[in-house]
Specification:
Glyco_trans_2-like, globular, three-stranded antiparallel β-sheet, 2 domains
């Protein structure tokens, strides 16, 4: 059998959400030839439920919470070694947006040639001075059937060329959570691969989400329960920018994170202290190349 297209879904303790995503992947007009669960749980609940509902879906047990980064690396390497030409890297709460998403993306990938490293629905360029994404404009999307970008975010239906995985282009497992997709994509770009988004699917999604005239929102107070994410965002973005020698972006991220820490005190001493503590830990661990898993 021609091993054309496989998919894997990284999951951690969300079996009900996962089952829905599996079903939507299998219901595609072009379903994957093989679908695999990359299971970050340390128990068999997800495995047993999937075996009952989807006995033909493969299962790869990691045995610990390796994050989206570690799970992504495990899934890509396993399926690339099996010889699959294209591999979907998905999270358990990110099903395809339309019934023909996979079909359209694979048609784009096949039409472009061997230097296409991945295709997806939503992607953007990166500002090398700030480290921030440059939002793709509606006008850019309306110019053609596809657009070359620097990165396709996690959850935006990333379908990756298996050949690039065999060349060692895989996510940095130590990043655990946050910017592992950007790190992977910039590695593909350095190797000479092109990253493409399907402009029709991209525009349709903007219309669905009512984001045709979206403007970047002002910074708001976050719930204390999600502040742990800032640690990963700061630490990992600094790592990725340094790895790619975007040193102005490193300076920008340091300055912005410091400013946000200071401004957070307007929401109270407790809140400001929590934000500052995460920021300082991120700076420290980036400086000493430490990649801990915190507060997860």
């Amino acid at each position: 059998m021609n091993k054309k297209f496989a998919a894997f879904i990284v999951t951690y303790n969300r079996p009900d959400i996962l089952m829905d995503t599996i079903q939507k992947c299998l219901d595609q007009t072009r379903p994957p030839d093989k679908l695999m669960i990359v299971d970050n749980n340390d128990n068999d609940e997800t495995k047993n439920k999937a075996a009952q509902l989807f006995p033909n879906v493969a299962h790869l047990k990691v045995g610990h919470n390796s994050g989206f980064a570690g799970g992504g690396k495990a899934g890509l390497e396993a399926l690339a070694k099996e010889g699959y030409e294209w591999i979907l890297w998905a999270d358990d709460n990110d099903p395809p947006y339309t019934d023909d998403t996979f079909e359209k993306l694979l048609q784009l990938a096949e039409s472009f040639g061997s230097n296409c490293g991945q295709v997806g629905v939503v992607g953007h360029k990166i500002n090398k001075r700030t480290g921030l994404v440059i939002r793709t404009t509606n006008e850019e999307l309306e110019k053609g059937d596809y657009l070359e970008v620097d990165t396709i975010g996690g959850g935006m239906i990333k379908i990756i060329r298996g050949e690039s995985v065999l060349k060692g282009i895989v996510p940095e497992a130590k990043l655990f959570f946050g910017f592992e997709d950007l790190d992977h994509d910039l590695s593909q770009k350095r190797a000479g691969y092109k990253i493409l988004v399907h402009t029709g699917l991209f525009l349709d999604l903007r219309k669905k989400w009512n984001r045709m005239n979206y403007k970047r929102a002002t910074v708001r107070k976050k719930d204390e329960g999600v502040l742990w994410r800032d640690y990963y965002s700061i630490r990992n973005s600094l790592f990725v920018m340094t790895k790619n020698r975007y040193y102005m972006a490193v300076c920008s991220i340091l300055a912005v994170s410091f400013a946000k820490s200071m401004m957070s005190y307007k929401h109270g001493l407790r809140y400001g202290t929590l934000v500052t503590r995460n920021t300082l830990k991120a700076w420290r661990d980036y400086t000493f190349n430490r990649f801990y898993k915190r507060n997860v």
